[in-house]
Each structure stands twice: as structure tokens, then as C-alpha cells.
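Exercise 3.2. Students should predict the tertiary structure of the chain below and write it as C-alpha cells, then compare their answer with the key that follows.

Predict this chain's 3D structure.
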Amino acid sequence: MTRRRSTLTPGKALLRLLLAAVLAGTAGVTVVNVLGQPVAGPTRAYTAEFTDASGVQGDTQVRVRGLPVGKVDAVRVVRRGGQSLAEVDFRVQHRFAVTEHSRVAVRFAALTGLRYLELIDPVDAESDGPPARIVTHLPTAMTLPSLDVTTLFNGMQPVLATLSPEQINTFTDNVATLLSGDGDGVGPMLASIRTLTEFVTDRQSVIATLMNNLSALSEATGGRSRELIQLIDWANRPIDAAMQVLDEFRKSALYGPEFTGALARLLGNLGLRRGADLDDGLDRALTNFNDSIDGFKMVPVVWENIGPPSQAGDIVPCSRGPAQLPATMDVLLGGQRVVLCNP
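Answer key:
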């Protein structure tokens, strides 16, 4: 039994190639149409200056509270005041107006480099009425530049060396989610901080470095990052206080249950037991003290009955005094008189 081989003829190969090209072209046209979709309704043109507009390009969306209301027309580099600036031309629906109290910020659409412009505090003509004065050229004082992600990892290279690429990507995604204004990103962000400090010995230093980096990002991006810095600062306070009283924990372990247990046994052996009568103990102590005073009072009497010490060569006196013998009776030994002591 033989199997038939399926042969691919040049005609079939060309047909498949043409079909793949048509599908790719259709998908590309769809994406271009979506990205280049014109803004609905009449628009107003603005120009904004940024110190950094990384990720912003033509057809980048302009949003208000997350909803698309405009498009970026062009991005170019200009030289003003001795520094290079990114000048961005964009259009916004006529309904929303930029005033002197408004701001334009570059926000994350994805960490891959995609950004969008966000209008902060614009005047809504439908709800607020027509604005008194519209600002069409926004200087750098009215804009918030693009975020430099490398700022987040300054000084943390030893910590990042212990993490896998997946963990680093998760951490940066959580930072981007929070900085983009998503309130649900607080929990994952704190979980990522815990992962960063899980295997380090000096957690205080790592958290301090991370707080400094996030503070720098906060100055550049604004938005929810300020709340994040405040949240981490609150979490850092008990850690900082614990580091300052770290020696007290050692003392607590040293003078803990083992020490207090031995001290309790010692006090019990001294008579200070639970349920002891304090009044009875004081009476005994005072009675013993009075007896001691009475004993000291007897010292002079005893001292008076003690004779002077004997001199060298003197006969040792009897401890209970000499025996009283009859006057006519003497005990002689070797021609010398012998003194007999009381038994």
C-alpha cells in the first residue's frame, strides 16, 4: 500500500501568497483607518511645548478623562531659550477648551512606547459654558513631559539582578497602570514592591531608593503617582521607626520570658510568692530588725566581760576560770605550781 504525496504546485503557492497578502493588507488598512479616524465634529488647533515628548507621534490620541476627544497632527523639535523642546500640534473637539488653568500631560498607553495626550481641567462648553480666555499655545509650564522609565530603576541594579524578566515586566506594568490613573493598580504595585524586597537584607535602603525614584517620576508625570508616594511614605513610617528601635527588639528577646521566668523563681525562693500576706511579711521584717537592734545593744556588755589579751609567755587562762582549791592544798609538778581549771 502506497501513500500519495501532496505536492504544492507553483500555482497553489502563488494563490496562497496572494491570499496572505490580501489579508495582511486588509488588516493594515483597518489599523490605519482606526488610528487615523478623524475627530468627530468641529475642532480647535493647539500647540504645546514639552521638555520630553517620547512616544508621541502623529495620530496619537488626545483624551479627556480617558475618552478620545482629539488627535495629534505633528511633532517637531524646536530650539528656544538655549534648550531643545518638542513642539506638538494637536486638535481637540470644539466642545473642550484649554485655558490658563488647564494642563496637557503625556500619559502611558503601554510600556512598549505608546503614549497619549491628556487634557487636565479643560473647560467643557456644554456644562461650564463658554470660556473667558482660550490658550492655544501652551508653554512648558502648562505641560507635563513623558515619563523616563529608566528613572524608576536607578540605584536598584543589585535588586533587579535577582529578578526574572517576567517579574521586572510585571513591576513596570504595575507602575504604568498606576501612573496612568488606574486606581486598581495600587494593590498590584504594593505586591510588586514586596517582591522586590523579599530577598534583600536592607529593605529600608531599597524602599528609600524606590521612593526617591518614584518621587522623581511624580514630579515629571503628576497624576496618581503623588498618591502612590504618599501611600508608600505612610507604609515606610513604621518600617523606619522599627529600624530606629531595632536594638529594643534584641533587648526584648534577651529579657523576655526566659529572664522573667528565672526572676519569678528567684523571688519565689525569697518568699515573694503569689498570694503572700504583705502585712505579715512586713511584721516579720520589722520584728527581725528590732531583734537585730537588741542584739547590737548587748555588744558593750559582752565586751566588758572580755579580759585583756594575754602577753607572750603568760600562762593561758582557763576559759571557765580556775578551780577554787583549799588554801592548804597546792598541786606541784616538777617543783612548779599547777593551776587547775573548772571543767
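Discussion points: The chain has a mean pLDDT of 74. The chain is about 45% helix and 20% strand.
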